Amino acid sequence: MITEVSEKELMLQREYIAKVKEINSKLSEIPLAHVHSFGCQQNVSDGEKIKGMLALMGYGFTRETENADLILFNTCAVRENAEDRVFGNVGALKKLKENNRNLIIAVGGCMVQQEHIAAKMRKSFPQVDIIFGTHVMHNLPQMIYEKLADRKRTLSIPECDGVIAEGLPVIRESKVKASVPIMYGCNNFCTYCIVPFVRGRERSRKPEDVFAEVEGLVKDNYKEILLLGQNVNSYGKEYGVSFSELLRRLDSIEGDFKISFMTSHPKDCTEELIDTIADSRHISYHLHLPVQSGSDRILKEMNRHYNRERYLKLVEYAKKRIPDVALTTDIIVGFPGETYEDFKETVELMKTVQYDSAYTFIYSRREGTKAAAMPDPVTDEEKGVWFRELLEVQNAIGEKAYERFIGKTVRVLCEGIGRTADGLMTGHSRHGVIVDFNGTMDMIGQYVNVKITKSCPWAVVGELVGDTD
Ligand code: SAH
Ligand code: SF4
Ligand code: F3S
Q: For strand 409-417 and strand 425-428, is the pairing parallel, antiparallel, or unpaired?
């Protein structure tokens, strides 16, 4: 069952926050916390809430682990190398703990939500004090208090369908761009993917809660709102409010800001959504539409519920409706049973779509998923060869992709100093494309119009002008 964390439970945690604050206020110096989130934007967003709670508990923050009093890793389980990195990082903390017995080490998030990983972490890394899963993040104040007060080691990874905790404090990484989770969890069970197992069932925040948060952020002068969910297109089933409807409501907010979102599952992406983007005032002209494979046979094995034809139809419609739409994707190479012929279909699809960029991954076996039990005869070396072939194809496409903007005038939020050449300022266009231009420092935080004169593989360059097209 999905439950909203009750006001009573949150009250209790606020009491623990006060208790930890009291302990910390007696120290001669403000204690420092080092928080690092691995993985996706959702995890980064959770990390911002963790920081929000820690700040209320009296912690300052440090980027270095060496001078921290509390180190917290918010982990990711999506691929094996993500987990290996965490084990490496946690292992490296052993020395720090030996030198400072008061150091608190906490590991939370998707990776430790898996029981076998939590067990390994507990057994092999005695330096870790707190291990907490994805459904109990809001209880962190209690776990930290118990560690400070009783030196108690905590392992909390309850199995449940998932919770929604509204109203947690948050410290945002950026003053310009704010992430807003609109839903949590996933019900899709793509056969390769661990996310549904570690994040629980799909659940949406109430549309009025999302609206109030976005409205508040716009009032606070945030310029980009990133709506988050593993599959935003299935938002709002509980409330009879579709994702397109939510977008239209948010688009009605007055102000100078952009709305973007991640991630769209092609099976639930509709022409209505594309129309909503095309007809909006604020929504980014960027669609991240993970295809995973170009082969119908593999898509079926992956349990993706769309085929190549449907995907290409969507892309065609997006190109027709949204001016110069920016398309990006995720692709997995070497899914169990994939043949070179299947792989070639992915390459062909890539050439047909002409993505601005693609996130490409070699398949990683995840314990407990359906694909983990499928025969996987292709060697890692072979998969590596395919992977590099795919990269080359995309690099060649990416090289030329932004040429379509040359001669056009785009609206850009000036964000800071550019990287393409000395003396240029930089920002993003409505398409999410990096634009460097001849601006000045006083333009930071303002929207300007830039005529594009040159394109590179990862940015475009242009000159300030008066009007937009
Ligand atoms: N919910 C998002 C994706 C979240 S995971 C969606 O459905 O699009 C981000 C990406 O990681 C996925 O799109 C997929 O390409 C990749 N991925 C997930 N599991 C993987 C695995 N076991 N091996 C390799 N790549 C994987
Ligand atoms: Fe994983 Fe598929 Fe859910 Fe995305 S939609 S999180 S790939 S199971
Ligand atoms: Fe990783 Fe969890 Fe995100 S597994 S990709 S951090 S939802």
A: antiparallel
Ligand 3 centre from 319 Cα, in Å? 30
- Which residue's CA is the closest to the ligand 3 atom numbered 1? 76
| Cα angle, residue 146 at apex, residues 31 and 149 outer, rounded to 5° | 70
Beta strands in 191-271 (DSSP E): 203-204, 224-228, 258-262
CATH topology of domain 406-464: OB fold (Dihydrolipoamide Acetyltransferase, E2P) (2.40.50)
Identify which of 37, 363, 339 has the alpha carbon closest to the alpha carbon of residue 194: 363
The string of pLDDT tens digits covering residues 452-461 is: 999 998 899 9
Ligand nearest to the CA of 42: 3
How many whole angstroms separate alpha carbon 314 and alpha carbon 312? 5
Q: Which CATH code fits 7-156?
A: 3.40.50.12160
Q: Are 338 and 295 in contact (CB under 8 A)?
A: yes
Helices (H), ranges, 78-128: 80-91, 94-99, 110-113, 115-124
The Cα–Cα gap between 463 and 449 comes to: 8
DSSP string, 357-424: EEEEEE----TTSSGGGS---S-HHHHHHHHHHHHHHHHHHHHHHGGGGTT-EEEEEEEEE-SSSTT-
Around ligand 1, the residues with Cβ closer than 6 Å are: 78-79, 192-193, 195, 230-231, 263, 265, 290, 292, 330, 332, 361, 363-364, 366
Evaluate if pTM is beyond 0.90. Answer: yes
For residue range 178-210, what is the model confidence (pLDDT) as tens digits? 999 999 999 999 999 999 999 999 999 999 999
- Tens digits of residue pLDDT in 290-312: 999 999 999 999 999 999 999 99
What CATH number matches the domain at 177-401, 3.30.365.10, 3.40.50.150, 3.10.450.350, 3.80.30.20? 3.80.30.20
For a mutational test of ligand 2's pocket, the pick from 40, 202, 230, 364, i.e. the residue with the most ligand atoms closer than 8 A to its C-beta, is 230
